[in-house]
Amino acid sequence: MFSYRHAFHAGNHADVLKHLVLVQLLRYFAQKDAPYWYIDTHAGAGIYALEGDWAGKNAEFETGIARLWTRDDLPGIVAEYVDEIAAFNEDDLLRHYPGSPFIAAQALRERDRLRLFELHPTEIDVLRRNCRHLGREIERHTMIYAADGFDGVKALLPPPTRRGIVLIDPSYEDKRDYARVLHCLEEGLKRFATGCFAVWYPQVQRLESQQLAGRLARVPGRAWLHVSLTVRKPSSDGLGLYGSGMFIVNPPWVLESALKEIMPWLTEVLAQDAGATFTLESREG
After folding, report:
1. What sign results for the dihedral spanned by CA atoms 42, 45, 47, 48?
2. How high is the pLDDT of residue 168?
3. What is the DSSP letter of 226?
4. According to the model, what pLDDT value does residue 5 have?
5. Strands 164-168, 37-40: pairing kind
6. What is the spatial distance between Cα 166 and Cα 180, in angstroms, rounded to a whole number?
7. Among this protein's residues, is 33 annotated catalytic?
8. Residues 69, 118: contact at Cβ < 8 Å?
9. Beta-bridge partners for 49
10. Average pLDDT rounded to a whole number, residues 104-110
11. Annotated catalytic residue: which of 40, 112, 169, 177?
12. Strand order in 113-117's β-sheet?
């Protein structure tokens, strides 16, 4: 159950899509003075050393963030995403990759709050240690729970501010995670109908993965936006991650047009073979 460590995959193509969308959600929420909560159901370690043994083992970042890092033609929201990653690196060298909690912490304002769940017995200690380096001010507005975020998030909804982003981002190491994601979203919306819920999912050769977006789309009465990025054809051995998707319920109204502008470019840059493609679809509430 606890074999998965995100450090092996930090900065890969799936992280690029996930965090590019997350940066836009955070920026949208910061446009209003009213405070908001950011809640992460599966926070991971917070930040990852790309030169470390784990990230360097498969060097997945080489076909993700590294393909964007030195380009001078980044369009629109891709440039904004890379700027956020650059804030954690010095001298224009790509050495660290921030996970979702650190990207959110960087966007945190005085009255906003950060709520992080992590169940992995090793990752939770690393997350706590890493968060201490963010400074006293951010620590003061952050709570870290050594708990299952699928269950723990219920007690936090709705947040007192009635504004919030909930990132549901499990490893899907356990195939039951697919059903739990759907249940978590449904239960979350019962408690916080106006909340922005963002679900990340992997594209792998597993029926549950292929069906998840369709099942999420059938959640009644909510506006949603679904974007996916496929970087290669599925392998003949049936193994490996060949893409990913983000499914956002109650998305910012400006997000679809921003993604429509950059997804063809991003797909071309991150393509690993001729099977690269993307989808972008939505429903009004």
Report:
1. negative
2. 98
3. E
4. 57
5. parallel
6. 15
7. no
8. no
9. 96
10. 95
11. 169
12. 142-145, 113-117, 37-40, 164-168, 196-203, 243-249, 224-230, 277-283
